[in-house]
Amino acid sequence: MSMLSTWPGKFGRRAAGRFVPWWRMVQLGALLTVLGLSPSSYRGPLRPVMARHLVAATAPVLWWFTLLSALAGLVITRIVLVTAQSYGLSQYALEMVVRVLVLELLPMTAALFVALRWAIPAGTAVAAMRRAGTLGAMRRAGIDALRTEVLPRAVAGLFSVLLLAAVSGMVTLVLAYLLAHGFSPWAFEGYTRMVGRVFTPAVTLVFVIKTMALAFAVSLIPIGSALHDPEAAIGHAPAELQGLVRLAAAILLIEVASLVGNYY
């Protein structure tokens, strides 16, 4: 009987332990969104800090990611074109490339790339400052640590995901046209019509929401884990591991929701 009486309490504590970190992420995201939309976050001494983080999060990976996505796009597009031609389905090949690469793979790949290159190291840096007491010392000195240390890292991750997804998508669309039609301008009208058929208003809305959700998840979850996880959790499991597990779950849920929105 005693075991039955204690089981609901243990289950409730475990459920609360799972739910509370996600609720804190939502609160942090709302707070950072308000700060990010405030013009004062980009004025005075905060402007060079924000600019430095934006450049650090985007410039080192932009060319490499664009090159890698272009190479992958070339290989995948060529395979799809040759396979479709062999089955007499050439008219559907480019539409499949746009749907698979531009709509599904590239935004998710950009999010994972930025997460590994920027967001998780940024969360590690915030966790280190938290353990060292730097954030507490800044608050006691009257400095807004959230605006000066956390917001620039989050905005940089958000901007990097959006920029990489946009640039790689445009490059893939151009390369797909060149592989299918060469440098001839006569097929451009039909190609743009095909792209327009893929990007219907509903699909475009889902695509924008998905990309924004991935960008927010990448920019918030690793830093939120570093800020709000208990000290014992940070001491026994690295902050980047906590953020990586939650980020993987969030990306999976976003991708599943996107597939359901587009194809069901």
Task: Give an overview of the whole structure.
It is a single chain. The chain has helices spanning 2-37, 46-86, 93-132, 134-140, 145-181, 188-198, 201-228, 231-236, 239-263. The model is unreliable at 1-5 and 232-236 (pLDDT under 50). It is 88% helix and 0% strand. With 264 residues, the protein is mainly alpha-helical. It has 9 helices and no strands. Helix 2 (46-86) runs antiparallel to helix 3 and helix 5 runs antiparallel to helix 7.
Descriptive key words:
264 residues; mainly alpha; elongated; disordered N terminus
Write the layout of secondary structure elements.
Elements: H1 2-37, H2 46-86, H3 93-132, H4 134-140, H5 145-181, H6 188-198, H7 201-228, H8 231-236, H9 239-263
Helix pairs in contact: 1-7, 2-3, 2-5, 3-5, 3-7, 3-9, 5-7, 7-9
Number of helices: 9
Span between N and C termini?
Answer: 47 Å
Q: Can you tell me the overall shape?
A: elongated
Secondary structure tally: strands: 0
Kindly estimate the percentage of residues that lie in beta strands according to DSSP.
under 5%
Give the uncertain stretches in residue-range form.
1-5, 232-236
Computed Rg: 22 Å
Structural class by helix and strand composition: mainly alpha
Mean pLDDT: 85
User: H/E series, N to C?
Assistant: HHHHHHHHH
The major pleated sheet works out as: none
Quaternary state reads single chain
